[in-house]
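During the no-cost extension, the postdoctoral fellow (Dr. R.K.) reprocessed legacy sequence entries with the updated structure-token encoder. One reprocessed record is reproduced below for audit purposes.
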Amino acid sequence: MSELFLPQELIRKKRDGISLSDPEIGYMVQGITDGSLTDAQLGAFAMAVFKCGMTMDERVNLTRHMMNSGETLNWDQHNLDGPVVDKHSTGGVGDKISLMLAPIVASSGGYVPMISGRGLGHTGGTLDKLESIPGYDATPDNSVFQSLVKKIGCAIIGQTANLAPADQRLYATRDVTATVESIDLITASILSKKLASGLDALVMDIKTGNGAFAADYKMAQELAQSIANVSSNSGVPTSCLITDMDQVLGHSVGNAIEVVECIDFLKNPNNADHRLLELTIELSAYMLQLSGLASDLQTARIKSMNALESGKAASIFGKMITELGGPSDLMERPEKHLKPMPVITPIRSNSSGYISEIDARAIGLSMIHLKAGRTKSSDAIDHGVGLSNIVSKGQWVSKGDPIATAHCRDQKQLDFLQLEFPSLIKLDEKEPQLPNLIKEVLSSNQDLNS
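Re-encoded structure tokens follow.
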């Protein structure tokens, strides 16, 4: 019956707030994929969804059709002896958790086929960090990818053209038609890619705060509810953690410099930034518990920490890097391959007080100014520049104390950071009350809970 559908009539229905049937949504997704739906029609459809929303059934159907618009990964023939589980973050400044989390879960019996993205806007991308490692191949064939996941327990790569191609076109359209913020379309975009990976369970890290995509807390809650329910209705148990992104996660921002922090984290977890450690362990624990690798969260936390402290996670990360073309001695000699910048200089505080606010979004935007991030997907980036030793909320600093270390190509970049960065840190005489890192947790078909 698909030949009876007219795109403009389906757009009209959605524009008028009428629900689309499963075949109608399938027809639209087919048109997105094969190009028969024009750019104008796709933009109009995205705006109609943005303005009128979708029912839960529509979201589930849209996600399923987008997932099936290309290849899907099947793990049956690989005879894995554990569950296939993944984590996805909505993105933040300094969010490097995937690099530690994947080997932690792999060390604990899970298989993590992580398909990640590049950064866009003020948030960094996992793929950009990994591509700062010389030789790292972020786009292997699916057969190679699946073989590596079976062999090592995890692999982190980029999205291929054959994985959820409908999402790739719809995402590009949303970016230029002011429809990015649609909960319906965000849900389908994220889950179509994740569910195409053949998962048994999924954990979402939905960030909120000034450094997050969902800066508004209510939007973060709505997105968590939507993703948990659509994923569950698609047959994949899901937990969504809403987490704080009102400051940089960890102590570094950039690409190569964040990889260095990850290596230090894996080798010396007891010296890691406490927020970075807490969230990494908590997300790992939810993955283990949800996929059946631990009976409860406390047991899962202990297993995750043991994977770190035993060195197993560090070993698996090193193997993953080597198997995907990176240097075999990266863990032992990171400075050999992630070469330091010509200009490395502390940035000092102009006054004294407690760190009460950190403008994480502006820090991310400053990285774009230095070409460590991008404003459009075709932009090339500089993997070497960035900031390390960034102060945390609640920390006391005196005038002249370092509040970060700049890693720059030249004096011009340093001059910019010396002027810009101190203005992004607010000091107060009173010690601030620190927000909870994990604000709420939502599991499939449950209400939000603390």
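The first helix runs from residue 7 to 15. The mean pLDDT is 94. The remaining legacy entries will be reprocessed before the final report is submitted.
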